[in-house]
Design goal:
The structure is a single chain. The chain has a domain of 29 residues. By secondary structure, the chain is mainly alpha-helical. 60% of the residues lie in helices and 0% in strands.
Amino acid sequence: MVEIRLDLKKSLEQNANDYFEKGKKSKKKIDAVKKVVLQYQEKLSKMERHEIEVQEEKAKATPSVAASESGSAQTRGTCPSGVVGRQRGP
């Protein structure tokens, strides 16, 4: 049930007009909020698309490592200092 309060100092037409004006103001506010929500949804969609593009670019720029390159076989028998070639010293 809807309850409508009337100002007894005003006529029925004045009360109706007041409610009509309040309704118009409320509708304008709702429309403004919907517009802002839509703008943020569009901005979020843009950001998500940009993030996907950045991730795709990273994937293209970073070469994948073959299994044989990531194993310990590539590091066995190397000098701990990282020098390749003839070792000097005692």
